[in-house]
Design a protein that fits this description.
This protein is mainly beta. The protein has 2 helices and 15 strands. The protein folds into 2 domains: 70 residues, no CATH class; 186 residues, no CATH class. Strands 2, 3, 4, 5, 6, 7, 8, 9, 10, 11, 12, 13 and 15 form a 13-stranded mixed β-sheet that branches. It has a two-stranded parallel sheet with strand order 1-14.
Length: 265
């Protein structure tokens, strides 16, 4: 049963909620008390988005335990590399033309289809070359059909979220060129129900989803050339009453666009 949402709250009540014996010794720094799920914990203070910060000795406040309940993480399954230090998905496109305008797209979708929620990725265009890497590090070709990077193994999840970092980039070139990175929520027609917004929870029913697009763009003209690389880390979260908000881990996406101009107009 969840703790009260207002009024006086005692350390003993928190201890009992996590299975402790009333009147026995405990502290706010105990690992079971720090592991409780709380809807009032701020994102900055919470390691998993809603639970109390589990780092021993870190600052927590008593108000954060209002409405808290002894919850467990959701069960998850990962199929791709999710360390955030090596690519989980990569897209590449090169073009040579008088005016070369190149875009290398990855699309990421989080989809509820009971009894699971799937994290998926695909390339937007078959004109590009794209890969994903399994959890064992095996490189596999991507296509315009979604593949599963990971999933939450629970039916009836009510809210989902995709977080991403501001893309970092590497741009090299010569002559008249430009390069840039693009990342934003994007349903792209029927591929998803809602646009994702980084850090925002979206309420979903069964068979609904959220998505975003991640793109490297390069433009070259008059015998110029540009190599534009873009990098971002993404994390998927899911929420259901009675469970801790849970993440699948951090996945690194890379897109690279090479534009080569062979003429001058």
């Amino acid at each position: 049963m969840a703790l009260q949402t207002s009024g006086a709250i005692s350390l003993n009540e928190i201890h009992v909620e996590v299975g402790g014996t009333s009147g026995t010794t405990c502290s706010l720094n105990d690992s079971d008390i720090r592991g409780i799920g709380s809807p009032n914990a701020t994102y900055a203070d919470a390691q998993n988005g809603t639970g109390i910060n589990t780092t021993s000795g870190s600052a927590i406040s008593i108000y954060e335990f209002y409405g808290a309940a002894d919850t467990v993480p959701m069960s998850t399954t990962n199929y791709a590399r999710n360390t955030g230090t090596a690519d989980a998905a990569f897209s590449y496109r090169s073009q040579t033309a008088g005016i070369a305008n190149v875009q290398a797209y990855l699309e990421c979708r989080l989809r509820r289809t009971d009894p699971y929620v799937y994290l998926e990725v695909r390339e937007r265009s078959s004109a590009q070359t794209s890969y994903w890497w399994t959890s064992a590090g095996t490189q596999t070709a991507l296509s315009t059909s979604y593949v599963t990077l990971g999933r939450f193994n629970l039916t009836g999840i009510t809210e989902i979220r995709l977080d991403w970092t501001t893309p970092t980039s590497s741009t090299t070139g010569s002559g008249v060129y430009s390069g840039s990175c693009y990342i934003a929520g994007e349903t792209n027609g029927p591929s998803a129900t809602y646009n994702a917004s980084s850090g925002s929870w979206v309420t979903v029913s069964n068979n609904q989803s959220i998505a975003f697009a991640f793109t490297a763009m390069g433009l070259a003209e008059c015998y110029a050339q540009v190599d534009q690389e873009c990098f971002t880390d993404i994390t998927a979260y899911a929420r259901k009453s009675g469970y801790q908000d849970t993440s699948l881990g951090t996945y690194q996406f890379t897109s690279e666009a090479i534009a080569i101009s062979n003429n001058c107009f």
